[in-house]
Amino acid sequence: MNKSKKIMLLLLFTFIVCVALAGCTLQDRIEEYSSDKEQCYLNTENVTRFSYKGNDYTILADTVSNGGLGEWIGYIRQLAAIDENGKILLQENVETVTFQSLADLAEKAPEAAYIIPFLNVYAAPNADDYLIVDVNGGYHKAVISKNVKDSDTVFDFKKTEESINDSFEVNPENATQLLWGGTVYQVTSDMVSDDELGSYIDILAESVTFDTETKIPLSKEDLSKIDWYGENAGQGREFWFYTDVYEIYGTDKAEAVAVNVNDNYYIAKRQ
């Protein structure tokens, strides 16, 4: 399944859950938490720029870990459809995005080459000459545009496509493991609270049924096959639905991440 289909599947799943649960108040919680934060605005002519308190900032390629964040001071919270030149064609509020609105975004901007999420803005912990902005799952430094130096490298929005291709996937030989490049992560029974979640990393949106002993995923043929002779009578089966992957606050994602399995976040540790 390609990445765009996974995004739509996950959004549809989330939407259905929210409709089904009468107490779904995510929007209220977001508004409460961000009520004292400064709203920032993307530059529609240049996606590498945004404004904060009247100042124009340029987003750099330099990133920091989630442990290097200062105070949360602002938010952008926009899903931006961008053309090849970095011009924003359309924006959608990520707080209210649904399966239908995302589909509409793609339909209304067919010439869009990239769709990138911009989330929160943070102060630098021990400096006042730059801010930090959450872009496409990475914490990027941002400096006042007039202070950009020749030695600075501006955020390359075109590289987001490359990062999408380098995504997490379920190990086809062990359904309780994730693969990321050449790294194997083992999903553990240790749970992670929402407060411990760091930056968003990836979407899996994949369901898998596997043999509880061998951990090998079962194919559709295996699941539909009739066991006439009772050869698999003692076989245990388990079903997992993977949704999204996040960093764990204060932990390097090269060592461990948080993955949502059956509506709970668990620690997946590098092997």
From TrEMBL:
It comes from the Bacteria. Keywords: Signal. The keyword Nuclease does not apply. Residues 1-22 form the signal peptide. PROSITE patterns: PROKAR_LIPOPROTEIN. Residues 42-142, 170-268 form the Lantibiotic immunity protein Spa1 C-terminal domain. It holds the Pfam family Spa1_C. This is Lantibiotic immunity protein Spa1 C-terminal domain-containing protein.
